[in-house]
Amino acid sequence: MRLFEDNIHIEIPGRPTSSTRSPEAEPRLDGKVNSVSRRDAVEAFLRLRLFMPERQKRIVATCMNGEERQYFFDKMVEIAATVEGMPVTYQQDGKGDEAIAHLHYFLGDCHWYIIEKDREGEVEQAFGYAILHGDLINAEYGYIPITELVDTGVGAELDFHFKPTPMAQIKQALEDRYG
Length: 179
Fold this sequence. Notes:
Layout lengths: L37 H11 L5 H10 L5 H17 L14 E2 L1 E5 L2 E7 L9 E6 L8 E5 L1 H6 L5 E2 L6 E2 H12 L1
Antiparallel strand pairs: 1-7, 2-3, 2-6, 3-4, 4-5
């Protein structure tokens, strides 16, 4: 079923098909029972749709119906919780490199670390640190429109493996990497 004009097909929770099984009943390799339901994952995915480029949304939507679905269920809920708990514009003002980056976008050797989200919770004006083409000398803090990052033809990807990290730690890792 299509919910929006982004042509992403997802299954609606509560309407199981003959091929779906209850994710709550499936044991995981570590012996635990899955804790994130399809419904929670889809709701999280829908809240995150403005934070991801089209290509990444399509891949995630497909994977949420595949063999690795539980990983993507868990990941969508985790990232949505990170976004919801992020400080809004000016809440980390004056912290400098002690400010915490909550999201990371990348495209080739360009990186954007998002420190604060828009006051309205939207993606029009986030604040963060931008590094273009690995150029640390000209990297800078500033306002970053997430819509422009994800709406370009190629689209910067949201890093699913990034954990909130102080900017001082990120800058040190970048300095170690690029010299």
